[in-house]
Amino acid sequence: MKGIDVVMEQQHSPNRLGDRIGKVLIIAYKESTDLLEKTLREEGLTPEVVRQAENPAMQDFSPNYRCLLNHRSAWEKALSGPQPTLIVEADFVPVEGFGQLPLSFPGDRTDLGIAWLYTCASQIYSVSQEGYAEGFSTSMVAYIITNHSAEYLMKLADRITDEIGPKKYFSWDSGIDTFLRQHKFKNYVPFRNYGEHGGPPNPEHGQNQLSSSHRADILYGKLAFLPMYASEDYGGSLKFLGVRLKARLKGIGRLVTGRYIRLPVLKKSNVPGRLLSFAIRRHLTPRL
Question: Alpha helices, DSSP H only, in 193-287?
Fold first, then answer.
């Protein structure tokens, strides 16, 4: 099983994450980011915290809309960078060796829209000969964009403000893939997740008939530190093992029920075997 990881690493060996990223932005509100910053620095990255300031005028805004505003601030900062920008939320927990992992997209592409490093409800549309998977994800816990795609994401945020407004709940992250593809960008999902969403469940999701919590189905390696949901206050190591086991089983369930690869996508593909191989091999690891 270890050999499978090695093969995937060799396919992408010229494109290490830490060598191809410009800015690294951590989106935060009141959360402490000290441990995440320290971990990223140890990986050779230089993070900057984008922290939302207190604003009484925003008190009745939807929390999900305030989250969008914080991401928009990061997108604005990404405009000035010639290299791709890595954006992570404050409760992201990277795996060990994060900076040495391969890019999840071809590094020479000029039409990169977004490359998710952490996925939720993911799907794949195609897999290139080199092993890069175009696909869909919700959740903006960890991802890479370019200055060009950042410009369009800001337009999307402004359109949501005009058409939906700040007070109504709207799952804006689920429309990122469609919006960028409509503007001729290509979006990528990773072979395995580069880290975990470590925060507590979002109550606003549950109030709107969506899953209140989401975790990485498969990790690239051991987490650099324990997620918040596995702290002593929340149940410690036993809680961690239970959450990770549930996430792994959910990922396998999505595969066998045709939600990771949709049957119409598989039927239309010129290389269905390549899609199936990618989808199955990513699960062949004993790690929770």
Answer: 203-207, 236-256, 263-268, 272-281
